[in-house]
Structure formats: structure tokens, C-alpha cells
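Marked as duplicate of an earlier ticket. Keeping the data here for the record.
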Amino acid sequence: TLHHVRRLAFVPPAGGSAEEPQLASCGFESVRFWRVKRGKLHCCGLPLQHHEGEMLLDLAFDPPPASPDEEAAAPDRPPVRMLVSSSGGKLFQVDPLARRLEYVFALHDGPIDALALGRGFAVTGGADGKLCAWRLDFGACWLERELEGPVVALSPSPDGLKLLAGTRRGAVGLLDFASGQLAPLLRAHTDFICAVASDPHNRELATASCDGTVRVWELDGAAPQLVEFEVPAGCARSVAYHPADYSLACGFDDGTVRVFDIGSTSLLAEHRQHRGRVLALAHAHGARRLFSAASDGSLVAYDSAHEYQPCRSHAATPGADSPCLAVSADDTLLVAGGLQASALLLLDAASLLPLAAVPLGSDATALAFGAGRALYAATAGCELICVTFADGEDGAAASATVRSVATRAHPSLPDARSP
């Protein structure tokens, strides 16, 4: 077909008609009816009567009778009603049997992306996130709720008492018409999840995604998503919980580090010290410092007690594909992987002065301190190694011993933090 088609649906037969099945479609400046006759597809357009330039987005039909008793109880039941929504917030009421435009209702200020028609009511879902229920005279909205993001899908239950609504931001809600309650069923990211961090005090975790959001999830309970921080123009690449406070540090593609208070959903600090993607974050265990490492090869320390003001920096290499950080339990040693080719960089955590470089067979991709000062590192060569440090007289790491714990423990996978 040469006509734009956005939605396509079968037209319910009227009164048990035995005619060939008929289809209806909507699209740009187009509402059309289709039928196959003698092996050929025939179509008929519906005049829009001075409503050109509209994108017709969704269509819906009267539901069929639930039972023969219901059909017999309503002998004067009108013919099948068809509703079509538009990008201009209008609703077109059409008689699909006569193929005639009957009424046009102006309901929303913006596009109506989703439409559902029940027994005695209609529901519209808008790009503004509003979900509206109407009686079929469309005189006034008798129930209105707001979802997180543009509504793109609606599905009423067979008894018409409940309605599922889906949004472009990956959320699904259940609307109960009797109580008017809108219960969230599902929330999800809409792009790559680049980092995950677990709360050290609560059964919660945080996820950072390229959909421009950082979300906090509850591991127990009916509503798994607790909080959502939105940075529309940014891709969140890293996330770390504060060891004592109920807050999150997040690193972004544009080199910015932001710290959010989870309880009040407020922004505590925002600093842009990097020229590359902030791919790694780590808090000192005593909560005095926050460290960030980026793809430009730079490392920055922030003073957590003074609004996270940047206080130290170190430039290791011109570029780093996947840096990683770990802080020793006594907060004296900072270890950085990926900032020096095939080596671990040991730095004094207070001053960021380099102490030593520990050569490896390949770049480290993940770091974690174990008991004592034993450091475990996963490498790009699919190897798990353990590095133990011997302290010098001043307490700094004077030497390091490297031993392999496992080889080729996992297949090589692409790094989701990379572009």
C-alpha cells in the first residue's frame, strides 16, 4: 500500500454478519478500510473533513457482547463504534459500517498515543503521561491519573473493571476503576544498564543507565522501584553508595559527578572535573573521600565533608577504556586499574601520589579488596589474580606479590560502559 499505516485491526462484525472480514487502519492523514474480494485487496478512505495534517495514532472498537444473554438484553444496541486518536489531541468517532465520520472531540493538549474502548466508557493515554477515562458522550473526564512517561499502550480486562497501561519509559501500571487506584506493576530501564551498586545498610540496590536515569530498587516489597533520578541529557556510567549516609554518587558521560540524597531525592553536589566518561567511583570506608576515574585517564578525589569539593587529581594516561578503583580497608591505599597499560597503579589515598605500579599480563577490569590487604583483580585476559602487599616502614605498600587464582574463568565479553 502507498498509504501510511500506524495501526491495523479487524473490524468486529455487526449482528453476527457473515460478510468477509474487514480491516481498519490509521496513519498520517489516513483512516482506511480494507477487504479482500476475489483474491484482491480493496480499500476505501474516510474523508477527514478539514482535519488534514493529523497523524492518526491509535484506534479502538466497541467490545463484543460478553454472552448471548447480554446481546439479547440490548436489542437496540447501536452498531459497532470506532474511535481514532490523533497527534493533535483529538478523538474521531467513526461508524465503520457506514464508513462515516460522526464526531470529533478535542480531549488532550498533546498527542493521544493509546486508546481503549470498554462497555460504556473510553480511556485515552497521552504523551503527557495522563490517563483519562471518559463516558461515551465525552462531556467530561470522570477519572484522571498520571503515569511516569508517555502512555503508549492500554489493555482493559475482559470484565472492564481494570486496565493495564504501559509507558514509553518501561513502566506498567494497573488501574482499578472501582477504587480509582493506579498501582505500579513494573518499572524498567529503556537502555543499557552500565553499573549496579548494592546498599551497604539496606536491602536495596542502585542502577545507572544510558536512558538518563539512576534508579534505586527495593529487593523486598510490592513496589520494587523506590526512587528515580533523571538527567535527560546524560548517560549514567557508574554509581556508588556512601558508606554511612543514604546517598549515591553517580558518574556521567560528560565527565560530571553528581551526588544525590536518596531520602529527599535532592542533588547534594555536582562537579565536572573530567573530560571523558566517568566509569569508576569509590568511597573511602571512613567516608572522608570520594574517588572518580574517567576514560580520559584522569583520577580525582573529592572531600565528602565539604560538599564534595575536588581536592586532589592525578593524570595517568591519555586514555582509559575501562578504569576501575578499590580502596583498602584502612583508607591508606587507592588502587586503580586501567589507568596504566597492563598494570595496577598504587596511590596514596590522601594525596593521590603514585607509590608503585604492579605489572599484570593484561588490563584489570574489576577490583575488590579481600581480608587484610589482599586485592583481587579480574583482567581482560579472563584471569582472576590475587595481589598481596607488604608494608614498608611508613605503612605504605613497599612491595606486591601477584599470583593467579583462576584462568579463563569466563568468556571475554564486551564492556557495556564502552560506546
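See parent ticket for discussion. The mean pLDDT is 86.
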